[in-house]
């Protein structure tokens, strides 16, 4: 079957690899009907050293179940399913608490063991716990928005939940990538009265405004902090949704959080410490976040997608087939595309 | 009047200074009937460089109102009042949100501008917002426990609230000082089923057990982390109540927090960054806390003190008059006393 393999920075190829197959009695096999390229895929695309090992890419998908292991109970062949970026058994303490990304038997897609989603097919561990069956056909018009429930929309929602967005609160979203744009949707959905997008790409800013952003700050560093404070009566925002993952983004988060505010970080961190531990303390600012338990969030977000109240699928501005995946990486890395959908 | 002044590490004196007096129409003047020495006072007691400037000491008190400014509306002469360690106007957005320690007109006691509480009398800014009148006489038997509502009990409670202690949760308290002991009370009060005290002083451990600690870990560093994990089925605790403020205490906090857990830090931080930002992210651990809004917490905690359900006053194991304050510092610094009450 065809699958996407990254060999080193800039070198991503679609190649023939052995067909995915059931290995454990709790596995399912899905035929991928939609996948996509994630902002987090761009980190290895920019940084991976050549080491002779290819990396299976892709961790977001919707697919059709082609086969199930003998211990699979709730998932059936033919189901159209969302595949969250992490697999989880659905039965451990963490899954019961809604933190599926800490599942004791869990892990992440996009590696040698389970394969990647930018491929024709994929083995799904713990199919009953991992997969979410959808009440629509595989080519439903809502597919782009449904696909975002496998990662970006749930991740933006996680940033908003951790940052304690609520009715009447002021929020800032750092980053205008697909996660940042979904974080704007999430902040609006949870009732924020002011949503400041921090980004600098005109096409993304335009979409963010349609999603509910009330203000835009395109400065960086101290100038950005000063602008956000000016926009919020001098105090900063209750909720910072950090959707980038750089040291600078965290420093900005600390500078714009209101006393008593919260920073929800979902950008994969490329730094080792949280800066400004003393101002953070004296101002009672809270920092949390991490890999979003998107599996847990589907229940809450799906009705809003099915009934058209939110349209996170609008973050996709390009669709490619598997052969077009390498150019999709290039386009996202060059900021020519916000997010690329893959239709194998 | 007599007041406590710190000149340099180890040199604290009780001296005559000009009488405290009303300066602003919103001020009150209190005669201090009870004060105490705080663990946080030990930091300057250990570290202050001689610079020719004395520092007014003390930020916890109960007193009797002796005079009020002309704009004071709710506080009356003769009231017996709790003086929280921070003053606050009671009317700004932050006070309304319950974060009095971020009051836009607020500040802290124990400095040149407002004086310190280890003294005969004290000027109280924003008396209506700051002071909490008590329904008891100035020598009530509950005075020690009531006095803790000015800081340590409210601070321990803050650690527990930020660390999201709740029914059936596992908690660890780092530090067996008076705040740590009050954090044990707070964790028990909020329903924790397991409360691990991390400390090594036998007298404090004994008191912690009476307050509700279920386990004690006296190791440090990696050994302490391994012990806590072993006591919690390998996963760590839901709630870490960090009551020390050192870099090591934060590293331990990160090591013992369960995935999805929270660290509530109330130890004044003597470090500049929060360590382990990547494990913290991948495990969705939340870090928050800061100066406790004890003024906000009195409403919730006072009934439990008045009705004897909690007895935080038991952290006081020595009482001195003003002349005995220097020896009180020495005794606390030498760990001969847990917490010293001052009865001017």
Q: Can you give a write-up of this model?
A:
2 copies of one chain form a homodimer. The first copy, chain A, has helices at residues 42-47, 93-96, 127-130, 143-148, 152-162, 178-189, 202-211, 221-231, 247-256, 277-282, 294-306, 325-333; strands spanning 2-8, 11-16, 28-36, 55-56, 61-68, 80-83, 86-87, 107-108, 121-124, 132-133, 170-174, 194-198, 215-217, 237-242, 257-265, 286-288, 316-320, 339-342. Chain A is globular, with a radius of gyration of 20 Å. In chain A, strand 11 (170-174), helix 6 (178-189) and strand 12 (194-198) form a beta-alpha-beta unit. The relative contact order of chain A is 0.16. The N and C termini of chain A lie close together (11 Å). With 344 residues, chain A is an alpha/beta fold. Chain A is 30% helix and 25% strand. In chain A, strands 3, 5, 6, 9, 10, 17 and 18 form a 7-stranded mixed β-sheet that branches. In chain A, strands 13-12-11-14-15-16 form a 6-stranded parallel β-sheet, sandwiched between helices. A 3-stranded antiparallel β-sheet of chain A has the order 2-1-4. In chain A, helix 5 crosses helix 6 (178-189), helix 5 crosses helix 11 and helix 8 (221-231) packs parallel to helix 9. Chain A is built from 12 helices and 18 strands. The model of chain A has no long low-confidence stretch (mean pLDDT 97). The A-B interface holds A 93-94, 97, 99, 101-102, 162, 235, 250, 259-260, 262, 265, 268-269, 271-278, 280-291, 293 and B 93-94, 97, 99, 101-102, 162, 235, 250, 259-260, 262, 265, 268-269, 271-278, 280-291, 293.
């Amino acid at each position: 079957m065809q699958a996407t393999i990254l060999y080193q920075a800039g070198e991503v190829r679609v190649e023939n690899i052995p067909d995915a197959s059931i290995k454990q009695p709790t596995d399912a096999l899905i035929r991928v009907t939609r996948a996509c390229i994630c902002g987090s895929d761009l980190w290895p695309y920019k940084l991976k050293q050549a080491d002779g090992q290819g990396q299976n890419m892709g961790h977001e998908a919707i697919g059709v179940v082609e086969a199930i292991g003998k211990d699979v109970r709730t998932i059936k062949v033919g189901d159209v399913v969302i595949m969250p970026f992490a697999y989880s058994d659905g039965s451990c303490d963490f899954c019961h608490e809604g933190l599926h990304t800490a599942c004791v038997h869990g892990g992440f897609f996009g590696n040698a063991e389970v394969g990647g989603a930018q491929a024709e097919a994929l083995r799904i561990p713990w199919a009953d716990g991992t997969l979410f069956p959808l009440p629509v056909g595989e080519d439903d018009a809502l597919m782009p928005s449904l696909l975002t429930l496998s990662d970006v929309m749930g991740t933006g929602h996680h940033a908003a939940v951790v940052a304690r967005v609520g009715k009447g609160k002021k929020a800032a979203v750092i980053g205008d990538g697909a996660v940042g744009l979904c974080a704007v949707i999430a902040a609006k959905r949870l009732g924020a009265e002011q949503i400041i997008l921090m980004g600098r790409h005109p096409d993304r800013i335009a979409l963010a405004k349609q999603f509910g952003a009330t203000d835009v700050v395109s400065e960086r560093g101290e100038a950005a902090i000063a602008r956000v404070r000016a926009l919020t009566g001098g105090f900063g925002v209750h909720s910072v949704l950090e959707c980038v993952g750089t040291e600078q983004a965290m420093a900005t988060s600390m500078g714009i959080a209101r006393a008593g505010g919260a920073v929800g970080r979902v950008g994969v961190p490329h730094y080792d410490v949280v800066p400004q531990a003393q101002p953070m303390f004296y101002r009672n600012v809270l920092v949390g976040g991490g890999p979003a338990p998107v599996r847990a969030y589907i229940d809450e977000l799906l009705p809003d997608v099915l009934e058209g109240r939110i349209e996170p699928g609008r973050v996709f501005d390009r669709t490619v087939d598997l052969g077009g995946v390498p150019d999709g990486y290039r386009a996202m890395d060059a900021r020519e595309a916000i997010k690329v959908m893959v239709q194998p």
